[in-house]
Amino acid sequence: MRALTSLKTATLAAALIAAPLAGAYAAGHQKGALDATEPTDFTGPRVTGLIEQVQGVNQGITEARDANNISASEAQQLHMRAARISQAAEKVAASDHGRIPAAQYHDLLRRLDNVDQRLMNDTGNGFMIGDGSDGGSYPNG
Q: Comparing C-alpha atoms, which of 87, 86, 60 is closest to residue 74?
């Protein structure tokens, strides 16, 4: 009798342990409609525009380097800054279903504009403040 009780207890314990594990195993191998994760599509107008602007700045950096207007180290530094902006845009878009919120979009554009302005200054095409007699420093004189 005692052996029958311990057999029943062991069987019951095995069933109670196996049931949650079997459910977890089945849940891990079954994909429902809500579980499907599509790769993020970076096609929103802000993402597309920002990526195109980054490509334009990269093209300007390459052209300036080819024309020997900037050194190789300056070109590399500017390319790296542009790449970080592009990576940040993709990261934000991936976390927000392919969209970039307006505030972050404007921040990324500002950062990219700083890279572009740095390129213009390094190549001598930046705008000067004043009449240029002081080399563009402010205040004039």
A: 60
Indicate left, alpha or beta for 34 from its phi (over 0: left) and psi (-120 to 50: alpha). alpha
Using CA atoms, how far apart are residues 109 and 85, in angstroms rounded to an integer? 9
Q: Which pair of structure tokens corresponds to residue 87?
A: 């990576």
Q: What is the pLDDT of residues 4-17, one digit of tens each?
A: 566 666 665 555 56
Tokens of 105: 């979009």
Give the residue ranges of DSSP H helices in 67-137: 72-95, 102-123
Q: CA 86 to CA 110: how far, in whole Å?
A: 13
Please list, residue by residue across 33-54, b when 16 or more beta carbons sit within 10 angstroms of its beta carbon and e when fewer do.
Answer: eeeeeeeeebebebbeebbebb
pTM: 0.60
Report the distance separating Cα 78 and Cα 72, nearest Å: 10
Residue 139 zone, left/alpha/beta (φ > 0; ψ -120 to 50; rest)? beta
